[in-house]
Amino acid sequence: MNKTIKNQILSAFFAAIISAISLITIPSPTGIPITLQTFAVSLSGFLLGWKYGTLSVALYLTAGILGLPIFSGMTGGIGSFFGTTGGFLFGFLPLAAACGIAKKNFQKVICSILGLIICHMAGFFWFVFSTKSNMIAAITTISLPYLVKDIISLFASYIISQLLLKRIKFIND
Is residue 173 very low, low, confident or very high in pLDDT (cuts 50, 70, 90)? Predict the structure, then answer.
């Protein structure tokens, strides 16, 4: 099979994985659900590389924009990007790219942390803009409560990706 076609199929497969994992939500007191989207997005970047990992996220976002109920809380449509957590949806693109851009392990860790920071900044600034919140209230509502979970998700996806890349040859072929 042509390598480009194989990578496009894997991107579509990971868009489906991100979609399925995004439907698993745990309500929180802040009203922002706890999800494993960060895990799924970073896993796609680590496994598929920056180009096809980002493509998988773009496919996921496009399907959601078109109205498929694949965002957290089984929501979809363009309005999801204008809600209080819409910035995180945009932030998933640089997160996947950052997880997939580096080749060496230490560089992957550093790049993925930078990608997570960019993702949280996008979510934070969009929340401030869309809710007219002050920055202290926004950071305690939208970022800090989820940061530990997202860091754990990032490292778990990194470890799982390293194990899978050693065992599943077709991803790197």
Answer: low
The region, left, alpha or beta by phi > 0 then psi within -120 to 50, assigned to residue 102 is beta
**Cα distance between residue 141 and residue 91, in whole Å:** 17
Please classify residue 23 by burial: count the beta carbons closer than 10 Å to its beta carbon, then call 0-12 exposed, 13-18 middle and 19+ buried.
middle
Please, what are the domains in the chain? 3-171 (1.10.1760.20)
112 vs 106: CA distance, rounded Å = 10
Per-residue pLDDT of 49-90, as tens digits, reads 999 999 999 999 999 999 999 998 899 999 999 998 899 999
Residue 85 CB contacts under 8 Å (≥ 6 apart), including other chains: 32, 72, 123, 126, 127, 142
Burial 128-163 (b: 16+ CB within 10 A, else e): beeeebeeeebbebbbeebeeebeebbeebbeebee
Contact 14, 47 (CB under 8 A): yes
SS3 26: strand
pLDDT reading at 136 higher than 90? yes
In whole angstroms, what is the distance from residue 47 CA to residue 6 CA? Answer: 13
Structure-token match 């439907």, residue found: 23
